[in-house]
Amino acid sequence: MIPFYSKRNQVYPVLRQGRAAVEKHFAAMEDWERETSLYKSLSGKLSLVPVLHTEPGLLVTEYIPLPTLPEVLEAQEQAGFSPEPWRALAAWLRRCFRLCGQLPSDGDLRNFLWDASGNRVAGLDLEGFRPLTLEQSGASIAAMIQSYDPADTAVKRRAAAVLAGELRIPDAAPAEARRRLAEFRREQKGPLFSGIVLAGGASRRMGTGKAALPLEGKSLLAWQVEKLRALGIQDILLSGKDCPALPGTRVVPDELPDRGPLGGLYSCFRAAEHPRCLVLSVDTPLVPAAALDKLSRLHTKGMTCLRRAGKPEPLIAVYDTALEKSIHSLIKEGGAAVRALERPASCTYFDYLGPPEYLLNCNTPQQFAQARQLAACCARRQIPLQ
Length: 386
Description:
The chain is about 35% helix and about 20% strand. The chain has 11 helices and 17 strands. The longest helix is centred in the N-terminal third of the chain and has 17 residues.
């Protein structure tokens, strides 16, 4: 599951003047106007995460390290069922409806935090709020509860039943909502991707291989592989002759040695199971999975490259594997820069709006020390970096 996920907008954790926060960059001004207006009208009347700052197109809220309701579900699967979070959720929905007549339309439980000490639910991310009845919103949430993996367990059925009972939802409504949810997911199911982590290179400026460098208890290579898995990618290829193999991945040697990143891409494209590949370099371990999700969804053909403040990052990109032919013509006689592929690849861009420090490239010990310092600060504030 991707932290700070949004269907339409870019959402990232930040350290704002030493304080843990979440930035939301809106794709459309009307969405920003609607959501900030909702926060303003509900503030002090309903349990919500506090708003720290707003300006046109940007909303900054406090980051509160409490479990989301999907995490509560997971914990109850292990420790046993408790009805309290689901009663509190129903009470929150009833109060929200009385205050503004709008309720969550997508059923996403990630938009609720559980404060066990106060036996209360706190809401965040009002993006999907619409004029709905309690029955409509509650049925979609009950359907979502039962659909989380592993679906339809005894705990999930009891949680959904408590919510439905508290909101007096007819028995048939959650079943119909589950049917609609399954149909929506089938329609939204996108193309399959392979994932590539470029972990070769001489690492001359670092002085040692970068793939195995430790960052908050795991290697840089593991950071990137975990991001790809969080995005649902199962075919993961690792490029680099000395790259350590990780479970569930394949190490792909260069067919044309000493050709730099393009040589690694060429061999991996030929070995990939799917016609599209999400590519990451091993030395950008803090790039958010949420940004990679947006990048992947934007891709249509050729090459789609992440870009920050006008600067492309061709090693954080999606490529069609058919580009192997163009790469071969570029490197058959020697090495070439990755950007040489932009013209034959029909390149488009995803403009990343999050903190620039998350794109830090760890090429030197000094840069790696910066990444470690940032990751440690986030860990102390319990901000998940993935």
